[in-house]
Amino acid sequence: MTRLFLLLALLGLSWPAAAQDLFAPIFAVTQHPRCANCHSDTAMPLQRDARPHQPPVPRGPDGKGIGAQACIFCHRASNVGPAPGAPDWRSPKAGESVFRGREAGALCRDLRDPLRNGGLEPEALGRHFAEDPLVGWAWAPGGNRSTPQLSRDHLVVAVADWLRAGAPCP
Hints:
- It is built from seven helices and two strands, in the order αααββαααα.
- By secondary structure, it is mainly alpha-helical.
- It has one domain (15-164).
- It has a two-stranded antiparallel sheet.
- α5 (122-131) runs antiparallel to α7 (152-164).
- The longest helix has 16 residues, at 15-30.
């Protein structure tokens, strides 16, 4: 940690500024509708650019819907027609990893906390951003859906840099 403080001082940055700079690209991606629509604190996921899901479907305790309203009834392993899809389509469990409407520091602390991020330790969190097909879907959503401005490759580098620095929060 001492080396990090020395490096920051040489670059003319303070710890809070460095934390803000490291987390900023991650925060920007998490606020995009492709991520924030499912990572919301609503009883059902949102769709498109933050509209209520149609038909209305419950998130369910495991994030996969409930009974005949399970996600897999409409969402397949890939995009099919207007229905988006990726392997193991789901939302986070209720209360886990809420991105929509969060302040950067609070979201950062949640992403670091396995009790709030789906049980992911730092290495697994990095793999989640880098390898999870559902995360990757955000950059290939099909139709006329928008995608995050930062590429997935750049996000993976940003997450790795943030984790390597000890996952500092603004």
